[in-house]
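Example A, followed by Example B.
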Amino acid sequence: MRTIGITGGVGSGKTELLSYIGEHYPCEIVRADDLAKELQEPGGPCYAPLIELMGKDIVGGDGRIRKAVMADKIFKDRDLLAKVNGLIHPAVTAEIVRRMELAKKKGEISLFFVEAALLIENGFDKICDEMWYIYARESVRRERLGCSRGYSEEKITAIMGKQLPESVFRESCPVVIDNSGSLPESIRQIDQVLEAYQWQK
């Protein structure tokens, strides 16, 4: 089983490309953002520590953590962000490693993908066999974010300003998929890489 990390800037189209991979290749896909939410559910490893850190008022009537209340607290106390990340990121990494090991033991799939915006920052290059950078021109990313998410230009600029520069993505990821154009063109690049491993769809 080959483990592949997928990263890229906001609006680069990682989700759409991973949907294609999931439909056409024998693989498991773990999205770090989705996993982080899962780990914050009641009974999850981050649930009790977050309540202890931020207070019981972050819990709603249904017993779940209220993300809006969490966000408000973090906005008012920026030091909280580092503490929250210090709880969530290690838990996410540990769970990804656990799932990787489980998949290897089962031996049912050829590929294990991990998708995360902070893949490089969180050291996943040490966990994954290979790193892929999903690239798209900034103008394309801005258009996508404006159309699909309704983000303002100011919000897009602020988000992009917090992400790694393109040079770092390229230095850290041997495989680059250019997703600036059409979906069929991006799929052709993906197939070319994966079929070179001589794995069947």
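Example B, a separate protein, is given below in the same form.
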Amino acid sequence: MKKNVAIAMGGFSSEYRISINSGNVVYKNLDRSKYNPYRVHILQKEWFVIGENDMPYPINRSNFTVTIDGKLITFDCVFNTIHGTPGENGLLQAYLELLDIPQTSCDFYQSALTFNKRDLISVLKPFGIQTAENFFVDKGDEVDPDEIIAKVGLPCFVKANKAGSSFGITKVKTGEEIIPATKFAFKEDDEIIIESFLDGTEVSVGVITHNGEIFALPVTEIVSENEFFDYEAKYLGKSQEITPARISDEQTKKVQEIAKLIYRKLKMKGFSRSEFIFHNNEPHFIEMNTNPGLSEASILPQQARAAGISLEELFGSAIETALKY
């Protein structure tokens, strides 16, 4: 019997349009002989299913069901494509776990942890994962540019701690730019992280559970036309994403093994995409995305294609893995 799959898209953050794009790609590529896909928009003020007639049908949040043309629809699985809150910070996962509905992303604790860049770095350091030097600031703290420069140097990156798609990030080159950069970051989150600049090749490594095995996808090299891999570079064509990356076989193997180590140590499920910079020939971890972009042009689908995995197979495998847990 075919499974009813809710493709959760949207969310409450600045990334909601990107998420809807990812969700529509999943909807387009699911095998209709195995699944009945439903486009579920989860927005700040309303949750609804987009019907075949493009009419919205409200979700009953008490049990995550929907009634369409008089028929009650329950869901066997949720394909989670929400970037940011509530799909990438653990809220949606916890809600679905209470309802005993499987979903394709990692569990709520792992989601909350990886969404918090500061906490994730702290957890990974005991495992020997190298990172940039960092400095943490909370909203309301006194910001001392001299203290920050003494710790991380210049240039440096000022980032919103819990945000994605490069929202709330500034590359700072002078002390005078630090205060404005923190104000910009605080528009996205009440915590920020300030990181030292790492000079080197930036790469992205996708890790998935595929056919029951943890599998590192081919590595992508990121070459931004801008100062860094910002929103324009990610989504408006201002970068080259080269798969496989132009790094040595030894470097490829090393960064893939580190990405898989992180996946295993955090007890991850579903998709992950970890970012690294080869600084002084050593991969330094930047961040992990647990609900990476899934459009045809996004990095993880590019990597899957390079590994010989179609979108239909990639998405179907994620659903079948979720249904086994």
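On Example B: The longest strand covers residues 200-210.
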